[in-house]
Design brief:
With about 260 residues, the chain is α/β, with parallel strands linked by helices. The chain has 4 helices and 28 strands. The radius of gyration is 20 Å and the shape is elongated.
Length: about 260
C-alpha cells in the first residue's frame, strides 16, 4: 500500500510501486519509476528519467535527475539509475547523462551524505560511502566498497578502484588503484586500507600481500615498470595482486601519487 501525502505532487504517469512513502512537498515527474519500500522525504525532487530501485531512502531537498551541468548537453533525453537499499541524505544532487539514452548510475547499499553532488555519466558502485559535500564531476567511476570522506573533489573522468579510502578534502586528479588510502593535497599514497579490508573479510595474508605490492610501487624508489616486475617475483599470484598489477598497466602507469619521473 502506497502512502502519498496530499501535499506532494506526483505526476499521474509516474510508476510508484507498493509500500512507497512520499512525504509532503515532494515533486515527482511523469517518466519516473520508484521501487517497493522507498521513502521519499519532504521537498525531494525526482525528475524525468529516474529509475529508482527498492528500499531507498531519499532525504529532504535532494534533486535526482537534475539536468546536466555541461555545455555539451543539448537536451538529449537521458537517465539516472539507482539500485536498492541506498540512503541519500539532504540536498544530494545527481545529474542525468549528457548522452541520448545514457545514464548516471548509483549501485546498491551505499550511503551518500548531505550536499554531495554526482555529475553526469558517473558510475558509483555498491557498498560505497560518499561523505558530506563530496563533489564528483562528470564521467567518474567509483568502485565497490570505496569511501570518499567529506569534502573530497573528484575531477572529470577520474576512476577510483575498489576498496579505496580517500581522506577528507583531497582532490583526485587521476586513477586511484585498489585497496589504498590516499590523503593530502597534492594527493599522495597514505597506506593500505587494511581496516576496511578486514571488515570485508580479507585475510591477514591477503592484506600483507597487498602491502608488499604497494611497498614496491610507492616506497622502493624504482620505476613503475620495475615495481610491477618485482611484484610478480615477490608476491604470490592471487586476485588482489593481479587486480593491482592489471589496474596500473591498464592506466598506463599513470595512477595518482606515482611521480612522472618514476615511470619508464
Amino acid at each position: 500500500m502506497k502512502t502519498i501525502s496530499n501535499l506532494a505532487y506526483v505526476h499521474p504517469d509516474a510508476k510508484i510501486a507498493d509500500n512507497v512513502t512520499i512525504d509532503a512537498f515532494a515533486y515527482i515527474e511523469g517518466d519516473v519509476e520508484i521501487g517497493e519500500g522507498c521513502h521519499i522525504h519532504p521537498h525531494v525532487s525526482i525528475l524525468n528519467g529516474c529509475r529508482i530501485g527498492k528500499r531507498n531512502s531519499i532525504h529532504e531537498g535532494a534533486v535526482i535527475g537534475a539536468k546536466p551541468q555541461d555545455f555539451r548537453w543539448k537536451g538529449e533525453y537521458s537517465f539516472v539509475k539507482i539500485g536498492d537499499d541506498n540512503t541519500l541524505r539532504e540536498q544530494v544532487i545527481i545529474n542525468r547523462s549528457i548522452y541520448e539514452n545514457g545514464q548516471t548510475e548509483v549501485g546498491s547499499n551505499s550511503f551518500i551524505l548531505a550536499q554531495t553532488h554526482i555529475g553526469h555519466d558517473s558510475k558509483i558502485g555498491d557498498h560505497c560511502v560518499l561523505g558530506n559535500s563530496v563533489k564528483i564531476a562528470g564521467a567518474v567511476k567509483v568502485g565497490n566498497c570505496s569511501i570518499l570522506s567529506s569534502g573530497v573533489i573528484v575531477h572529470e573522468g577520474c576512476e577510483i578502484a575498489e576498496w579505496v579510502l580517500i581522506k577528507g578534502g583531497c582532490r583526485v586528479n587521476g586513477p586511484v588503484p585498489p585497496y589504498v588510502i590516499m590523503a593530502h593535497n597534492p594527493i599522495s599514497y597514505y597506506g593500505v586500507n587494511a581496516f576496511i579490508l578486514r571488515k570485508g573479510g580479507k585475510s591477514e595474508e591477503i592484506i600483507e600481500d597487498i602491502a608488499k605490492c604497494y611497498r614496491h610501487i610507492y616506497q622502493s624508489n624504482t620505476s613503475a615498470f620495475n615495481a610491477l616486475q618485482r611484484i610478480r617475483e615477490d608476491v604470490n599470484e592471487g586476485k588482489e595482486r593481479n587486480a593491482i598489477v592489471g589496474y596500473i598497466k591498464d592506466h598506463d602507469y599513470k595512477v595518482v601519487a606515482l611521480p612522472l619521473d618514476n615511470i619508464d
